[in-house]
Input
Amino acid sequence: MIRTVIKREFLDNILSFKFIACVLVAVILIVISTSFLTNDYKDRLKDYNVGVAAAKEALMKVPVYSYLEVRIFKKPNPLSIFVSGIERETGNYVDLTHRDIPASLKGGRIKNEFSHMFSFFDLSTVIGIIFTLLAILLSYNSISGEKEEGVLSLALANQVPRYKFLLGKYLGMLISLAVPLTLLFLLGILIVFLLKSVELNSIVISSMALLYVSSLVYLSCILLIGIFVSSNTKNSFNSLLYLLGFYLVAVFLLPLATSGFMERAITQRAEYFGKNHPAVTAERDTKIEEALRNLREPRTWRLASGFARHGRRLMKRLTPPELLDYRKNVNRIEQKIVEEYAQKVDDLRKIDDAAVEKLKKLENVIYASVPPANFMQLADTVADTGEDNLTRFLSQIAIYWHEYVRYLEEKKAFGLRYFYPYPEQFTRQEKEMMDKIAKDYVEGKDVVGYRGKYFKEAYNYNPEIKNLDLSDLPAFIFRGRTFKEKIRQALPQIIILIIYNLLFLIIAHFSFNHYDPRRDA
Amino acid sequence: MMIKHMLSRQLVDDILSFKFLVNTVLVFVAVITFSMVFVSGYRNTQEEYSNNRAGNETKLRRFSEDPRNNNYFANVELAMKPRPERFISSGYEERMPQAFHFQMVPFELRVLDLKEAISGDAGYEFLSRREYISKPAFFSPDLTFIVQFLLSFFAIILAFNAATGEKETGTLRLIHSNPAKRSHYLIVKYVSALIAIGLPLFLSLIIGMIFLGISSDISLSSSIIFDLFAFSLLSVLYISTFILIGLFSSVFSQSSKKSLVLCLLFWIFFVVILPKSAGLFLNSKPFDVPTAEQIEKLAENAAQDVSNKYKQEWLSARQDEEKLQALMQKGLAEMFKARQDVFDYYLQRKISAVRDLRKINLISPASLFEYASASIAGTGVAHFQDFWMQARQFGNGFVDFVNQISGEKGATSPFYVNVGFIISKPIDFNSVPKFEEKDIKTGERIKDALPYVALLALYNLFLFTIVIYKFQKYDVR
Output
């Protein structure tokens, strides 16, 4: 018996105008947006590959440590094709120096600063907006509509138990939604496959499967809400009005107002860094100054005219040994303090982060309690393209930064190899030349100026610099969420949706049992 | 007489209906929340703006005290003034660049994107603070959204069963057996719906105004009130479009149910789908722009081209000091201008790309309304363009001022200052030009909005004619 109800419901739905129109719109949107986002992903992946290669090459050409800057790229997430999240809005790399811990990403794909004005659909928003509407349009008259047409009393007279009728209607609608949903997912994957940009590895496929299941749970929740409202109203127009009111509030108004409030709250709460950062920097500077007070800077050799112009390369080498020693010491002392304060500055940010975290938790609670917003969050979690991913990347970078500084210290990078060019590299011939020039130079003679004795040598002096061997620099590997972690993260949200499902199923069943199937006179 | 009677009956029907209640509550809640969001946000932006102005003042004061000092050359960040009219329509300004960096030597006026603006004085602060990025919402919380989204929805809900509903209840036949004209019946429906939506609209505008008035950060000037007035007129026109869309689907369908579904599809297509799809064409060829680095390179090349052009002249004039000076001045001025021209050209192209992309949306009345209200409020892309012009004027004026006060003869270029000749005495701080964005004139804003308003009116007229025509042939049985 239940099979008949399901079959009838399914056929009724998929042949209706609203169904065909909504599905058509969804399909067109998915085709356009998936091809756009796939191409965008392709570009970002290309940027990533080119960037990584360039960064690798740059590491081979570092003569001294003061020139070292490690550029780390963030690999684009293929799931951003379906759930764009904030990936396109953020940059795609950080520059790591020994001076500070990076706090934000640089670069990025946004070429036109004004393009932030545009927002667009992706798979998750198509489900969240179009399919939600479709689910409402399917379910708003599930009970009251049947009553109005007189089918309800007929069906019940035919010894169909009420719960079977309800279940049949619900399953029929769910199947009629599941069919286009499956189509949408397959279409998305097909487009990605045809554009040949993404290797559809296991994590992508399993995440997509998870997203599919979550979408189904979510849509079923909307259907049950629809049935619940429908079984509590006498006419289907009122039922639709209630549901559309819910749709407007839950899908658009609530997220808009919440994010508006959150944005303001974040700018107000996350001010600890801005307020305290200048003081901390000043403290660092005075501390460095104090630490260096006992060191006396030895005088450098007096430069003769023309020297600076023609002996620039030589000049850097023609430094008195005591000056080099001095610089080495300064560097060492300074670096310790700089490192300590880089951590302190990062701690300042962490205080702000903690305040923001609290706000975000509150936001999550608000979103989790409303199914459409819950689903949007859930999609972000499953795809791992939201804010969490960015925070995760930056905190892993902060950990790596310490590793990186340890490496530099181990390599004695803040010693003589910090300067350009470092004196340990002199060849014997060079050393002899240096000695000669230095001796004459100390005596105050113009040695490398226009009329100088060694003008030619100095002018042509172009030592070959041996680059640093950085092959043992520890590599940074970003650990995104594994599938298990994704499930663990998404589970509470899915459970809330399932609870909603059960809740509305039970109360819909209850109210339907008391429903008066007779037509109004 | 008849028509008056019909109108009063219809109006009472509409206002006492459940849907009216639902909508009014929704609109009120939205207005109150949005004004709270706006007021607290406006305080933040106002604070940032005054910080920016204070920072600029310090820099300019230092410059005036010691104009020749290399480190103190005017190096200021020109910020867009936050307009309280953003409450009417934000024009998505919060997602647009809102500042320029001006540098006197070598001349440069460059747009700062939002990220650079976050990390403080560009180039000074290497320890940037953390960005908290959240997913961009589809809309901005402003009055435009309430009208564009909520009230248009309400409009179709009121109008979708104008013909079909009365037919189903059988009143339509009755009415037509009376000597009333068919068109009158429809006009009554239309006017009544307009009044029923106008009521919450005006009330919500008043509530919004009260909220803005209460907050100490915003002063309700006459121009805001005028803008609100113009905005409400525009809103009426926009709502009328959606009532007509409702009537349109009503006269074209035989049952209320079908009409409602049709209406909802129209609504979601015009209000949500179409306006939010233009961004999908951003990367396509006609709207593509080079990256920041590429533009930088192009600018360098342009400057290099000019310097190559002058190279021979400079070399040949080496003997004559005075001539060389003059030639250098001319060449360098041209070089800086060429560089700046490249930046300006691409900024203009970026703006045009956005404007062209938005043209796709002109078929949607919701977008027409959005653009018109942004023009009336003086926000959005048009505002940015005006702000840019003012920043440009300021930059060139500043260079002129320094040249003039230094008594530099023959310095005609607004792009070049000869550093060696800058006056060495302190300048009176009050005479140093300072940047403050001036508001766009009301006339200009209205002029900007006119094409959109005209299109919207055409839309109305078109729908109205079709609806009336079709209804004459409507089968009332």
